[in-house]
Amino acid sequence: MTDSTGQAGRDAFGAASTADEVLAGIDLTGRTVMVTGGYSGLGLAASRALAAAGARVVVPARRPDVARGALAGIEGVEVEELDLADLDSVRAFSERFQRRHAAIDVLIAGAAIMACPETRVGPGWEAQFATNHLGHFALTQLLWPTLTAAGNARVVAVSSGYNSDWKIRWDDMQFAQGYDKWAAYGQSKLANILFARHLDGLGARSGVHAFSVNPGWIMTSLQRHLTVAEMTAAGWLDDDGTPKPELFKSPEQGAATVVWAATSHQLDDHGGAYCADCRITEGPPDSDEAASLWAVSTELTGLDLIS
Fold this sequence. Notes:
Blueprint: H1 19-23, E1 32-36, H2 41-52, E2 56-61, H3 64-71, E3 77-81, H4 87-100, E4 106-109, E5 120-121, E6 125-126, H5 127-142, H6 144-150, E7 153-158, H7 181-203, E8 208-214, E9 217-218, H8 228-233, E10 248-249, H9 251-263, E11 274-276, E12 279-281, H10 289-301
Parallel strand pairs: 1-2, 1-4, 2-3, 4-7, 7-8, 8-11, 9-10
Antiparallel strand pairs: 5-6, 11-12
């Protein structure tokens, strides 16, 4: 899904751009955009900017009352209950959505948890992998008819800054043999990139393209499982606990690449790309990992609806 106004000359966006700046002059009236995690942090900034551009914005939320409070006063936004870590909840949400909406133009897979204590969900899945990847994998599978119905839809997976140390732990994906919160987070964010890459290859023939995004460093509720001492030791905070401005973007700046990947004509011929600062950037090298992860995700969720 791209804007109807064209974007000639709109190539000056970068790290300091905001979502409103990226969408300035773009009319999304009549378009439906789904934003998981769309009621806090950069997700809220994306929802607000997309609604201001005329889109109908659907925000699935594990805590719908909290979401409605955060989104109060923003016209064109609707909230529906969804727990990405619960496949029954994903199925129920998808059924409700498809009864009310014939098509979806953009699915922004933004909800995430980071560096949480060891937590098991569903059939014993590690919570970061389940929420950040498997829940979005299942949601995309189940919403596939509405994505293909749009004719030119996009899926945007919100990842993080790619690190070559990130690995898929093929022999112990659920961290049953020793939990490391950062290794688990890195695996889930690499999974987001690989998911978008393989989805684009499958979806292109149906007019669906996928991209992954590094939004940059943003201080939001994503850091809720980290202590001030941890973040200070990592160099994220000054000694007085203030986020270092040279490291962190505002939520509005973090949302810029997300909405750029959702709308920019510059990406029309670059399906599967990994993006940062409103540019295509270098992600993991091409390999068979994307296809392998897709096969494992299909087995784990029991969903194989995209071909």
